[in-house]
Amino acid sequence: MNNSDSRIFFIMGVSGVGKTTVGKLLAQNFNIPFFDGDDFHPEYNIKKMAGGHPLSDEDRLEWLKSLNKLAKDHAKESGCVIACSALKENYRNLLEDDLNQSPHWIYLEGSFDLISSRLKNRKGHYMPSNLLHSQFDTLEIPDNALTFNVENPAEEIVEMIVQKLNDQAEFGLIGLGVMGKSLCRNLASKGVKISMFNRHVPGKEENIASDFKQQHKELENALAFDELHKFVSSLQQPRKIFLMVNAGSAIDAVIEELAPLLSKNDIIIDGGNSHYEDTARRESLLSEKGLFFIGCGVSGGEEGALKGPSIMPGGDLQAYDLIKPYLEKIAARDKNDNACCTYIGKSGSGHFTKMLHNGIEYAEMQLLAEFYQIFKTKGNNPDEIAEILSKSDVDTQSYLLEITIDILKKREGNDWLIHKILDKAGNKGTGNWTTIASAQLGVPSTLIAGSLFARYLSAFKDDRDRVQNILPSELSAIEVSIDHILEAYQLARIINHIQGFKFLKEASETYKWSLNLSEIARIWTNGCIIRSELMEKLVDMLKSGDDLILHTEISSSIKKLKPALSKVVAKCIESNIAVPCLSEAINFLNGISQADSPANLIQAQRDYFGAHTYQRVDDKSGKFHHTEWLK
Ligand SMILES: NC(=O)C1=CN([C@@H]2O[C@H](COP(=O)(O)OP(=O)(O)OC[C@H]3O[C@@H](n4cnc5c(N)ncnc54)[C@H](OP(=O)(O)O)[C@@H]3O)[C@@H](O)[C@H]2O)C=CC1
Ligand SMILES: O=C(CO)[C@H](O)[C@H](O)COP(=O)(O)O
After folding, report:
1. Which of 80, 304, 528, 555 has a beta carbon 3.0–4.6 Å from 74's, enabling a disulfide?
2. Is 413 strand, coil or helix?
3. Looking at ligand 2, which atom is closest to the CA of residue 361?
4. Residue 432 CA: which ligand is closest?
């Protein structure tokens, strides 16, 4: 893609501003060729200008194209400096069209009076000074150029250009909320020179970036902005800008403001929990403007983002290669010290994978909540439940189990804090999207759906209060040993992961993403919310095939643990304990392990009322049949 040592500079500004002088000095400094755009005008244009007539857009077209070719030819080598007025945005677009790198735009500015007086003293140039008015009228001041005032001597301007380039940050981050702040500190502590931006909202959001910089020693070299164009100019090209803002309309709003300030080949990375279809849409929209868009799932919460998250980037592979060193630097490490970051695949696949991660997270959380309820019903207090969970088998170890133990032990005054927390579960949408996507793909992700709907049911707190008054359902302790309960938990988690990876496999085939499931499991072994001992085991199992349920280790665990799961669910139902996720687990297992299902009756009913046809077991051709049921 890029010869990394090659630099293309366009020195722009109105005639007489000093482009040639500055350009030659700059070229000398970098030891690259200098070209004066004026030397490339066709004879016709020179005559027209010398006659005091301004050039039209049509006159400029071939000239701009020839300068674009010049830039492209030299971009393949050491680069070059080209002086060219480039007064309008669309001229600049033509000049950088199809370049394999983002050029540096240097805008030389000066007052009309200063330049006019300089032009009057200039000899041997075909541009009469009265054309200067038309140049100023035509000029569209660039947003994304390094700007220098020509009251300074040319030598100083070149020094300032070099200094500015040296001061530029390698990586930019927009959105200094919970995750954005942690990621900034993580990047800076790894020695990455960063630029940070947070919007300015008068009276509400003021000096967020500069105040944040003051609070942390590791940010002393970071640049802080609340003006977007200054933030953009502070970044090395191609710019790499990580968005950590709320998913949805906020991302579109930021992109709308940001994109016009960027140059070709710049890379926007969306690290939020965006919907994968939005990501695909944004990627194709931005690619029309020559910009790259990487949809990048990030998991680990505030602490993970600070100390090492799991990172799931998807999009253009060449663009990914440019941001890979930064993402790998900040990612968590797996047990072999490899970064928990891997290229997921094209387009929205990174955000899809993060969405599914959250779906698995929903079910893992719901299972723990159901076991909390089971032990509560047995009369155990939160400390006792924490004690039971902390003694559970290594196979059940996970980050979510660890934090659950901490949560259960947390006291407030004489009581446990958990008793003071209202039992209405919130959500930000990823569980909902996962459930919709599973329905669209036709995959039975029943534990994820069960846990989503359990959250929704919990949110109907008033209804639950009212219904309980009319239909009281007494909870009673289930008579099952702790070992059996923990075995049921272990198996339900296995089913959750079987469903999750099957879901990914189906998405990969449908969307032609070629996902590497083992590699995805690997980057989920650390840094993310669903890291666990089980995930560690799945990395190798998924190497030998994607069908987890048929893997010998998994199938022998299922055989061993299934009686406990069946018993616990049956006992919970007898005891009026709602266990939607656990029951989905055993129902799925019973369904998937029976070659015969009652779906023949569904097919018959469909054919009866809607002539939807059915296939027959005694017709191996797979042909569809219809019966006139009332004849
Ligand atoms: N919190 C978590 O554990 C995790 C969150 N995520 C995802 O990361 C993203 C960010 O989350 P989080 O850091 O928690 O969110 P916060 O609410 O803490 O921060 C959001 C940031 O976005 C900025 N922002 C919001 N709207 C706009 C807008 N219209 N224009 C410009 N900036 C805007 C906010 O600026 P301002 O302060 O000015 O309002 C703030 O800096 C979300 O998509 C979230 O789902 C992913 C993994 C874990
Ligand atoms: O992405 C995350 C962790 O991986 C976030 O914490 C996520 O927002 C949690 O989702 P919800 O608020 O819907 O429970």
Report:
1. 80
2. coil
3. 4
4. 2
The response to whether residue 450 sits with its C-beta less than 6 Å from ligand 2 reads no
Domain 169-347 top-level CATH class: alpha beta
Q: What spacing in Å lies between the alpha carbon of 14 and ligand 2's midpoint? A: 52
Which pLDDT value is given to residue 2? 46
Ligand nearest to the CA of 361: 2
Q: What is the pLDDT of residues 303-338, one digit of tens each?
A: 999 999 999 999 999 999 999 999 999 999 999 999
For residue 125, what pLDDT is reported?
A: 60
Q: Are 280 and 294 in contact (CB under 8 A)?
A: no
The residues that bridge with 311 in the sheet, in sequence order, are 298, 341
Query: Would you call 218 a catalytic residue per the annotation?
Result: no
Confirm or reject: Cβ of 301 under 6 Å from ligand 2: yes
Spell out the SS3 assignment of 233-281.
HCECCCCEEEECCCCCHHHHHHHHHHHHHCCCCCEEEECCCCCHHHHHH
Summarize pLDDT for 144-182 with one digit per residue, the tens: 789 999 999 999 999 999 999 999 999 999 999 999 999
- Name the token pair of 414: 């004489």
The architecture in CATH of the region 598-631 reads Up-down Bundle (1.20)
Which atom of ligand 2 has the smallest separation from the CA of 529? Answer: 4
Distance from the alpha carbon of residue 180 to the mean position of ligand 2, in angstroms: 15
Fold classification of 355-592 (topology level): N-(1-d-carboxylethyl)-l-norvaline Dehydrogenase; domain 2 (1.10.1040)
**Does residue 256 have an active-site annotation?**
no
Burial class (CB in 10 A: 0-12, 13-18, 19+), 314: buried
Which two structure tokens, joined as six digits, stand for 442? 């036709």
For residue 327 the two structure tokens come to 């993402």
* Nearest ligand 1 atom, CA 201: 38
Please tell me whether the interface predicted TM-score (ipTM) of this complex is above 0.85: yes
CATH value of 7-166 in 3.40.50.12780, 3.90.950.20, 1.10.1040.10, 3.40.50.300 = 3.40.50.300
Question: Among residues 109, 283, 361, 370, which one is catalytic?
Answer: 361
